[in-house]
Amino acid sequence: MWPDDYAARYRERGYWIGQTFDDLLRERAASDGHRVAVVDGNREVTYAQLRDRALRLAAGLHKLGVRRGDRVVVQLPNAAEYFEVIFALFRLGALPVFALPAHRAAEIGYFCEHTEAVAFVTTDVHEGFDHRTLAAVAGKATTIVAGDPGAFVGLDSLYCTSQELPAGPQPHEVAFLQLSGGSTGLPKLIPRTHDDYLYSVRASADICGLTPDSVYLAVLPVAHNFTMSSPGVIGALHAAARVVLARRPDPATVLPLIAVERVTITAVVPPLAHLWLDAVAGMPQKPDLSSLQLLQVGGAKLADPVAARVGPVLGCQLQQVFGMAEGLVNYTRLDDPDEIVQHTQGRPISPDDEVLIVDDHDQPVDDGTVGHLLTRGPYTIRGYWRAEEHNREAFTPDGFYRTGDLVRREPGGYLVVEGRAKDQINRGGEKIAAEEVENHLLTHPAVHDVAVVAVPDPYLGERTCAFVVARAGEPAPTLPVLRGYLRERGLAAYKIPDKVRVLDAFPITGVGKVSRRELRSALAATEKG
Ligand code: J2J
């Protein structure tokens, strides 16, 4: 948590206003109750209905034993229930732990165990996968299912007639646990408070020009920090705007939705922007995208040629967003010149976001020189949840978060992302911690040693390659064998390596570590050859 003098300053400057998520929805239901908050297919939920259903669900969850401070793993697709569940938990002061729909037994089991979750809320079948099977790894958590519950508790059965609820949480308390992209063996959890998160949401809504007439299309998973807060679905609710949910991100689903719902703003990762641009450019009859004002692109570096096509092909403005679930979010501004919008990843939200760019010895570098990005501020965490040892490495003694990103600063404080120092693969915006995948692969009998690295990819930006040293006397493991093995271990599909290369030994750096750089260039050389 923030030291007292910082907390006092953030309050004095009007960033932390003492609002909880429950306050936000209550205020919106009072001022804009009749307006539509969420559109999910044919279903429309008004602000008043959302508030009413969230309270009834809070009562049902309370009856089931969910209490203030308890953790609840939430894994839901882009559906209206998501909002009812999270606002019910916010009302109780129970902490949602935001899992992604792509997560499988390995991740869900870990989240439930590590957070000692009392409940696991998921869906029945989504994208061909039966999420109810994950109940097997939920441990002590009660499995609650939206849709057909099978043998488990049905979410529908929990909406009680309104009843007295105990006092809710305080604004300075942790509201939820968000997931870190991570670079270590096990995913880290990010504790965000009502005060700090809602500040970033309000400021983001302002920067992105949201008004009650805005229509925000949620394309990426709603629980991802970008979709949730930059300004995302919570920003839209803050602005009394309308959230439209896309069940899938493909052009065939999304383009008609934009036309019919008169969407004004949406957020995507670079490969999706690329896909939409190609789809629209190739259509003889252009879809009606006249309502779309702003396409936000973030999560991974946007290539210059793609950035240049957004305006001409989609007829809307581009905004680059460089953010992280740990806090700091940078935006290009709506009135910035094209030069800045197309070639930088924006500047921080807050005048009190402290940005340091340093060399390998933590010494500041000159503007224009690439260095490690460190940051501290009114909505950037000071430590991961229950991860004392890791926190000593991930934060400086004076509380700066080491983002692991390599950036350079341009005039006006605009940042350009130049690379990464952390052992992470950014596969089209989906983050993969190399060590997490390595630890799974090391349990395979034919694997003696392994290093997982990013390899460049024209579409996704990066893909994953596992370099493997085979165990003596064992047949060298192949890509299908290792992929099948990881799937069986219940690892999310996006973390499963795209390539495998078997080596006799690893190149070693001066300090005795496996040289990932040499592995990457060896792969680039063999691919060219
Ligand atoms: C290059 N790298 C980027 C960008 C994120 C808004 C937008 C994105 C996220 C997000 C988010 C990048 N160019 N434009 O939470 O609120 C890489 C960096 C960063 C990491 C964070 C938000 N935008 N990145 O992507 O927690 O490496 O958040 O440190 O998933 O993504 O990942 P994540």
What does this structure look like?
- The chain is α/β, with parallel strands linked by helices and 529 residues long.
- It is built from 16 helices and 27 strands.
- The chain has a nine-stranded mixed β-sheet with strand order 2-1-13-12-14-15-16-17-18, sandwiched between helices.
- A hairpin with a 2-residue loop joins strand 23 and strand 24 (430-433).
- Bound molecules: ligand J2J.
- Ligand J2J is lined by residues 181, 225-226, 229-230, 298-301, 320-325, 329, 345, 403, 405, 417, 420, 426, 431.
Q: Helix and strand layout, with pairings?
A:
Elements: H1 4-12, H2 21-32, E1 36-40, E2 43-46, H3 47-64, E3 71-74, H4 80-92, E4 95-98, H5 105-114, E5 119-123, E6 125-126, E7 129-130, E8 142-146, E9 153-154, E10 174-179, E11 189-193, H6 194-207, E12 215-218, H7 225-229, H8 232-238, E13 242-245, H9 251-261, E14 265-268, H10 270-281, E15 294-298, H11 304-314, E16 317-324, E17 327-331, H12 338-343, E18 347-348, E19 354-358, E20 371-376, H13 388-394, E21 401-409, E22 415-420, E23 424-427, E24 430-433, H14 434-441, E25 447-457, E26 461-470, H15 479-488, E27 499-503, H16 516-528
Parallel strand pairs: 1-13, 3-4, 3-5, 5-8, 8-9, 12-13, 12-14, 14-15, 15-16, 26-27
Antiparallel strand pairs: 1-2, 6-7, 10-11, 16-17, 17-18, 19-20, 20-21, 21-22, 23-24, 25-26
Helix pairs in contact: 2-3, 3-4, 6-8, 10-11
Bound molecules: ligand J2J.
InterPro entries: AMP-bd_C (IPR025110), AMP-bd_C_sf (IPR045851), AMP-binding_CS (IPR020845), AMP-dep_synth/lig_dom (IPR000873), ATP-dep_AMP-bd_enzyme (IPR050237), DHB_AMP_lig (IPR011963)
Keywords: Ligase
Pfam family, one: AMP-binding
